[in-house]
Write a structure and sequence with these properties.
alpha/beta; TIM Barrel; eight-stranded parallel beta sheet; 36% helix; 14% strand; Aldolase_TIM; Class-I_DAHP_synthase; transferase; transferase activity
Length: 277
């Protein structure tokens, strides 16, 4: 890494003595070479939906359950999430399945509440440059999943990570979830190149979210595989028992059999520890 990059990212930048960080939560290690599967519905809707999904995620080999309870929707009239009720359902699911929980926190005032139930705090794309929020999660002793802003450069993304690191929290996981482009077929454009670029510039682990990147369930599997081959430390995908009935993002959600097939396919790929930087 160049001296300029070291100066730009004094904490997130890759160092000779620290080529790769591993974020470890209980038995799960993100950045240790084996791609980690994070999966679940865009939003927790009810008990049956989240328990059915979680059981399949667990049985298929997933290790972390994603499920939104505070939803940053474009329209104020769209489903906004179950809030605390959703967090309580996630806690029950964790008790039964043993899956770790990642869910989004949108407001500084909700950090303590979400941290009580979650294992990983997610900062969504829309809040990547919400600097007061970044500062406050930087004071929490638990992992933070930082999604790339939909119009953010890699430089801006890594500098957002610096806000968290500078406030004391060294457990940062980056997530490439697609950026805005001019074409209209996919929801966003998955920047596969961001994976090897980040691995050159930073010691932080990086995962990909092909669901939000594409907006189309049939594109999730090929791009998940591409991300792992490129060196991603994991994938985050949306899964729903009945995608056509989902309250949000059903068109990009995998049904349960398709998710099971995706996990089988990913297990056949070389781990990212075999990918050269």
């Amino acid at each position: 890494m160049s001296q300029l990059a070291r100066d730009l990212y004094p904490l997130a930048g890759r160092k000779e003595e620290l080529s790769k960080s591993i974020v470890e939560i209980d038995r799960v290690k993100i950045g240790a070479g084996k791609p980690v599967i994070m999966a679940g519905p865009c939003a927790v809707e009810d008990r049956e939906q989240i328990f059915t999904t979680a059981r399949t995620v667990k049985e298929s080999g997933g290790e972390i359950l994603r499920g939104g309870v505070f939803k940053p929707r474009t329209s104020p009239y769209s489903f906004q999430g179950l809030g605390k009720e959703g967090l309580e359902l996630l806690a029950e699911v964790k008790e039964e399945t043993g899956l770790l929980i990642v869910t989004e926190v949108m407001d500084v005032r909700d950090i303590d509440l979400v941290a009580e139930y979650a294992d990983i705090l997610q900062i969504g794309s829309r809040n990547m440059q919400h600097y007061p929020l970044l500062r406050e999660v930087g004071k929490v002793d638990m992992p933070v999943l930082l999604k790339r802003g939909m119009t953010a450069t890699i430089k801006e993304w890594l500098l957002a990570a610096e806000y968290i690191l500078r406030n004391g929290n060294q457990q940062v996981i980056l997530c490439e979830r697609g950026i805005r482009g001019f074409q209209e077929y996919t929801r966003n454009i998955l920047d596969i190149s961001a994976v090897p670029v980040v691995r050159q510039l930073s010691h932080l682990p990086i995962i990909i979210d092909p669901s939000h990147a594409t907006g189309h369930s049939e594109l999730v599997t090929p791009l998940a595989k591409a991300g792992v081959i490129a060196g991603a430390d994991g994938v985050m995908v949306e899964v729903h028992p009945n995608p056509e009935q989902a309250l949000c993002d059903g068109e990009q959600s995998l049904d349960l059999p398709t998710f099971q097939k995706l996990v089988r396919n990913l297990k056949l790929l070389p781990s990212n520890s075999e990918q050269e930087i």
